[in-house]
DNA sequence: GTGATCGTTTGCATCGATGCAAGGCCCGGC
DNA sequence: GCCGGGCCTTGCATCGATGCAAACGATCAC
């Protein structure tokens, strides 16, 4: 059984190919009888659109690309899930690409490596794209997720990193913590901003400088969180009374390291993270975390893409430079055991 | 700057479009000078293939589709990552679809809903496809991942579920456990097989029937694992001395429930799972698990797809019925704290 | 009754690449 | 010197759908 094309349907229904196309695409000026007749043939023959052909002709494919560093990182997996769900509601299919945090790959994407197949690109970049690439305006719809671009020249959707970090640290301070370690500074812009949020909260709480400590890591992974805290515990500095991890993966690693060293959480050290990945509710003890609303992020990102598509859209032309909207999405603090210091009866 | 097409490159290089195509696709009979000249124009103009156009003409798109129930489930996220990596090595792009475990969606996929855009489909189905669909031979390359299809009529790659479950339970028995709960039976074929592996191991160890217990769940999630164990602990039956969870998500939920109830692991109850998700190394205590080799699964699945592509391939014709290879991939038991019963000094 | 308007349907060209097979060229063999 | 064959290169048709605009008949206003 070969493929069923519009031509086959047209013959079967006794109308022209164009009319079939009109029915399929929901063109309004089709008589009810014709529509019904065509619909019957459509069903009977089991017609399915060839998206490639349509994409070639119309310039729209119905795909968007989502590029994340590592799909296996829970945060990105959950983000991808939210994007796929939101896209599904709009009849859009998502092409997921894993950049492995390779800036070369990210550059290729920014350079348009996916534009033929995707109507737009959602990029969740780890490394900040090189400035020379960043300087150009891409000739296709692009929205950054979470990470700011150089000079903020691309639209971006995500939580306010500074505020999110500040919220977490303020909470730790409220629990009575003073010597709070910020875990996770690295080369990324997000790392810089979360560091700044930490500093703002520490300053606002008038915590003495001697108690400030920012610990660098390479990646925001469980391994790195584990290793960094392990090292911290083995050092001869005074123990912290809280760890603020820049994301939950780091926090999970930190929890494991503390557990392995017999340090009690939250009695000895409180812990908080950012992302509120599903895993966070199942750690020992359950992890306090700042929860971004992934559904909102996905929805807003798609809306911004569509806005751009409307302009540069089908013609595949570079439209007027898109205002680089920086959209901050809501987040909330989810308090769990890992930071219930006083209530833990210290 | 509009798109650069082959025609533009051809004009720039002073050759025909066909010759450009020959250079791009690596056709061998092109003179070195011509090749160099075309290559220069290619680079200079920044040509990028339009995969849609090629796909339309040649019938091959360079995409494969990967359908998993939930991308946010760690196992599937890690599997997807492995598939994307393996596909990348072959120059193939992966289209990830989330079926949400909806058998209707899975049926649509089996029915060919993705064939236009994808050269082949990797389906990791949760629900067993309805028999009427399963009875047909699909007219496109398809490989099942992990889950058996009805009657095994599709090629399938994955671990031997019975053996994997048996291995885990045998290990628990070796640790001295007898009253071992199997956690996770549900409607799935995988659930059935893992139950069977459990039963085989229990029988082989001559464990008295009174100690056998299979606990059903709806999904293999942390939530369900938590709820099921919670209920078990609140019941009036004798406590188990081990929990064998059908996957790690369930195990994580079980660990949390045990922790919350003050049951010590592994001193009071040993726990083991299947999948060896990254999270497993960071639970409290670290989780013993059966680790499938995802890279092998991904590689073999792609190889099987390519075999089928070779036959039904470009012509989009239904080839000879493909032998429904059932390929069992290697796995190994990773022993961690959660099951080190004796060594824990009970 | 006639021309304008609207709703419905159609034919043709086209998107950008590749399949196919022919055509030109150069070489060596007889 | 002519012919066969291999190596390069090319032109044309084509994949399956949609953009465009014309054609058609029916309805409407004057």
List keywords for this structure.
434 Repressor (Amino-terminal Domain), 12 strands, Rossmann fold, homodimer, 346 residues, alpha/beta, elongated, 6-stranded mixed sheet, DNA-binding
Structural class of chain A, by secondary structure, is: alpha/beta
N-to-C CA distance of chain A: 73 Å
Q: Assign the CATH class of the largest domain in chain A.
A: Alpha Beta
Please name the fourth-level CATH homologous superfamily of the largest domain in chain A.
Response regulator
Strand order of the largest sheet of chain A: 2-1-3-4-5-11
| Total number of distinct structural domains of chain A | 3
Kindly state the number of beta strands of chain A.
12
The residue-averaged pLDDT of chain A reads: 88
What's the number of helices of chain A? 12
**Radius of gyration computed on alpha carbons of chain A:** 25 Å
Find the CATH topology of the largest domain in chain A. Rossmann fold
- Sheet bearing the most strands of chain A, described? 6 strands, parallel
Helix content of chain A: 40-55%
Assembly of the depicted chains: homodimer
- Contiguous runs where pLDDT drops below 50 for at least 5 residues of chain A: 131-135, 312-320
Strand content of chain A: 15-25%
Q: H/E series of chain A, N to C? A: HHHHEHEHEHEEHEHEHEHEEHEE
Outline type of chain A: elongated
């Amino acid at each position: 059984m070969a493929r069923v094309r519009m031509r086959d349907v047209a013959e079967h229904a006794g109308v022209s190919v164009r009319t079939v196309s009109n029915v399929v695409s929901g063109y309004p000026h089709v008589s009810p009888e014709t529509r019904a007749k065509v619909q019957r043939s459509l069903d009977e023959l089991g017609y399915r659109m060839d998206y490639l052909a349509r994409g070639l002709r119309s310039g729209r494919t119905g795909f968007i690309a989502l590029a994340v560093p590592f799909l296996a990182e829970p945060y990105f997996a959950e983000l991808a899930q939210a994007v796929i769900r939101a896209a599904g509601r709009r009849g859009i299919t998502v092409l997921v690409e894993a950049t492995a945090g390779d800036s070369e790959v990210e550059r290729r994407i920014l350079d348009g490596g996916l534009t033929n197949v995707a109507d737009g690109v959602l990029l969740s970049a780890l490394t900040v794209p090189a400035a020379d690439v960043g300087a150009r305006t891409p000739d296709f719809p692009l929205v950054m997720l979470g990470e700011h671009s150089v000079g903020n020249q691309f639209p971006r959707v995500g939580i306010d990193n500074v505020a999110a970090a500040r919220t977490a640290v303020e909470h730790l301070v409220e629990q009575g913590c003073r010597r709070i370690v910020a875990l996770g500074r690295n080369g990324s812009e997000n790392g810089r901003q979360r560091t700044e949020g930490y500093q703002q909260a520490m300053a606002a709480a008038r915590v003495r400088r001697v108690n400030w400590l920012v610990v660098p890591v390479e990646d925001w992974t469980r391994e790195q969180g584990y290793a960094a805290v392990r090292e911290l515990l083995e050092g001869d500095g005074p123990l912290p009374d809280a760890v603020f991890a820049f994301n939950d993966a780091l926090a999970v690693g930190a929890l494991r390291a503390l557990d392995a060293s017999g340090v009690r959480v939250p009695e000895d050290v409180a812990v908080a993270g950012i992302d509120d990945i599903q895993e966070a509710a199942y750690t020992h003890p359950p992890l306090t975390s700042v929860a971004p609303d992934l559904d909102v992020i996905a929805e807003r990102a798609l809306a911004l893409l569509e806005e751009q598509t409307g302009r540069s859209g089908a013609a595949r032309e570079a439209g007027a430079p898109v205002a680089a909207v920086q959209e901050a999405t809501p987040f909330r603090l989810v308090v769990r055991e890992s930071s219930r210091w006083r209530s833990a009866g210290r």
